[in-house]
Amino acid sequence: MRKIQLGQSDLHVTPVCLGTMTFGEQVGEADAHAILSRAVERGVNFLDTAEMYAVPARAETYGATETIIGNWFKANPGLRAKVVLATKVAGPSRGMPWVREGSGMTAADILASCEQSLRRLQTEVIDLYQIHWPERNVPMFGALYYDPAKERTQTSIHEQLEALGRLVKQGKIRHIGLSNETPYGLHEFVRLAQQHGLPRVATVQNPYCLINRSVENGLDESLHRLGVSLLAYSPLGFGLLTGKYDDSGLDGPATPRDARIGKFASVRAGRWGREDALAAARQYNQLAREHGLTPARMALAYCYTKWVVASTIIGVTSLAQLDEDLDAFGTTLPPELLAEIDKLRWRMRDLAA
């Protein structure tokens, strides 16, 4: 695979990134190590994780994914230098006191979380350190509207940037990124970095898939004009865009119980578990079949080839899924299919946003 520069940084990554949030919950350590090794064998040089993983988040599995990756690095000492490693510092608690107490995310929180991630990952430096979600009140994880009455900011963006800058100076992180961020937030991070000589954001990691193209509601222009790269997560809509739920539904007796939506009630309660999101996914899946493609191949090819996407984060639970996702790279969707996709989006918009 070719390498893509992330933002204005010196990081060059493959256009497919291995996401790891299933490691430690759905995927045991031995299988996770096999998936990591296969991904590298197939040319992937970009790994993404987070301190709060595995998902769904539980106190018992907090930090498990980073620990599994750290053990893989220890068992394969030559591989750390071959991959770009990204992880994330969690934002305010969101009902997870084992991750972060209270409603803030202070500079001290950022510094402490980074130290813990470095220990679990068994590495001296994190290549891309991302804020997992803003401390500010923003519409995310299924919320649609900004409500100024819910503002809770305790730590300024400037203070967060100063903490990240301290970590860069200490050589503990190389570059910074954001996740689940808005155009306003991105612009403020870039403005303040330029004004105060602090680290410049290289990436934004937001959901992007056929049933959630909310990035194209203004964030795409900001990314382009500011020279910041999009890392697209959930390209298969938590499995809705694979077709596996087309016949069974999301919570019926035939629902696949080894899949995330089938297995975890907390996932079914979120944006990916909406019946209207599944209804939209079914239409895209049928469109793929009509054009001789599997639903997963069409959905991934869509993300792989969009100008706004620098790297697509794939999450898998098996070697077979990994190979299927990687085999989809290089698929080109014909103009008439892209036009039909846009027609569906015009009618249904972003039902998993």
TrEMBL record:
Q: GO molecular-function annotation terms?
A: oxidoreductase activity
Query: What residue stretches are annotated with the NADP-dependent oxidoreductase domain?
Result: 16-344
Keywords associated with the record: Oxidoreductase
Top-rank taxon: Bacteria
User: What is the name of this protein?
Assistant: Aldo/keto reductase
Provenance organism? Ramlibacter tataouinensis
Q: Does the keyword Cytoplasm apply?
A: no
Lineage, top ranks: Bacteria, Pseudomonadati, Pseudomonadota, Betaproteobacteria, Burkholderiales
